[in-house]
Structures are given as C-alpha cells and as structure tokens.
Write the structure tokens for this entry.
Amino acid sequence: METPTLSSPRPSATFGGFLAIALWSATVGLGRILIESLGVMTAGAAVYSLSGVLGCAWLLWRPRRRAELRRLPRRYLLGCGGLFVLYAVCLYAATGLATGRQQVLVVGVINYLWPGLTLALSVPILGHVARPWLWAGIVMAFAGVALAAGAQGGVDWPALSSHLAADAWPYCLALVGAVSWALYSNFTRRWAGGAIGGAVPLFALATGVAMAALRLMSCESTRWSAAMAGVLMLIAVGPALLAYILWEAAMRWGDHTLVACAAYAAPLLSTGMSCALLGVLPGASLWAACVLVVAGAVICRLSVRSAGAAP
C-alpha cells in the first residue's frame, strides 16, 4: 500500500500542533489535583467521557461534520481509535501503579519517548527519509527530557535497575503508551491524511468508556466538590478535546516533522510551570536540559525529510 500523496503542510495546522503541546503542558498541575481527589481511573473516565460527549454533541449539531465522519476510512476509525484508547489507558494505569514520586517521574520520562519515536517511525510508515544523525538527535533530546525530570524531582538514576526488578509494570505500560502514541501520530496521517474531518470525539468517548470499565474493577476513593467539577470541565474542554483535535490536524495536514520535534518542549514547559506553581527557582540543570532538548529537536528536524522532498 502506498502512502497517500498530501498537499503542502498547512501553517494553521502546524500552529495548532504547537498549541496542543502548550495545552498538554499547562494541565499537569490541574491533572494532579483532579487525580488526588477522584483517583486515577475515576479522573480519567470523567475527563474523557465528558470531552467525548461534548465533542460528539458538536459533531451531531453540524450535519456536515456527520457526513464527513461517515466517509472516514474504517482502518483509521478502528486502528487509530484503538491506539488512542491504548495510549490513554496505559498512561493513566502507569501513573496509578507507580509508587512514590521517583517512579512517577521515571514513568513521565519514558512517556516522552513518543516524540522521538514519532519521527523514527515516520521513516517506515510514511516513507520519510532519515539521515544517520537522526538517532543522535533523538538521544540528545531524550537526555534533555531525563535531565529536566531529574532536576525537578531528583531522580536517582543509578537505582533505576532495582526499581525495574521490583516493579516493572509502570515502566512497561509507559513504554507501550509511548509507542502507541507514536504509531497513532503516523497512522492518522497515512490512513486519513487526505480525508476531511476527524473522529477524535469518538476516540475520547471510547477512552472514557474503557476507563469507566476499569474503574468498576478497582477500588478508588473519590471526593467530589464544586472546585473539582470546575477543574474537570477545564481539562475536558481544553487538553482532553481541543488539544487532541489540534494535534491530529497537525499530524494529518501540518508539518509533521516540525511539530513532532517541537513536542520535545512539552516536558520542559510542564516542569517550568510546576516550578512556578510551587515557587521553585529553576536551577542550572533545567537550563542545560533546555539546551539539550532544543539542540536535539533541531538535529531531528534537519535529519528527516518528507518522501518526495528535494534532498
């Protein structure tokens, strides 16, 4: 099967990808507050169910959108929908199974393998052409992500092997999630890049249903309040719906490589916002991480070009 021929990247879609990264990064603090009050699976089910219902209501309200939805390729609906659900469930489960702050930080670092994996997998899936230094850029950017996480929480990397031996499930789930999102970001372009419309609201609703089913099989204590309802609405409308819609548009119609490289900034933005909320002054390690991430992103951007582009 040949990769569909797409038109030139749309600047608006590329900008939307940058906005999606910012939205995801801005919600770390809010997400933690919600999880602490509702529990991991309860929070995930509530966020994705609400965002899915709101998104589907918007689709049903506009007849043209409903018609576009019916014309979407089945392999996109089933394949990308399954990858979307798998990513969200794995990430929430990994966060819930992690014991202690150190494990949570390591899970987050593993999760942020997906930008580099997106670029690497675009070579076999989308037919992009990579130069040998792609891998150097990926390693450099990931080193920056790891350094940023270590600067924020003081991760004891020499002890990582003992953590893996004691409880590998959080790390395995985080890795599966990272691979799943990298595959989603590429296959959504391959299977539906030339189509009109998208099914993100349906994917979010399916994720909410899956997490609700997992919630029924777990024991979580929930504490609802008016403040938590407001946080839930904010997350559901912004990062859980708008950001995913913007990201899919960027992957299908924007500059796929540039946006994937820019995603390396997400953990740094998240860490910086956490420092601001906690009143912590960023140290030299965080600035060094910024340099590594930016340099790695530039190398990745220069080492990958779309199929058919001029060498």
Observations:
- The first helix runs from residue 11 to 26.
- The two ends are 24 Å apart (CA to CA).
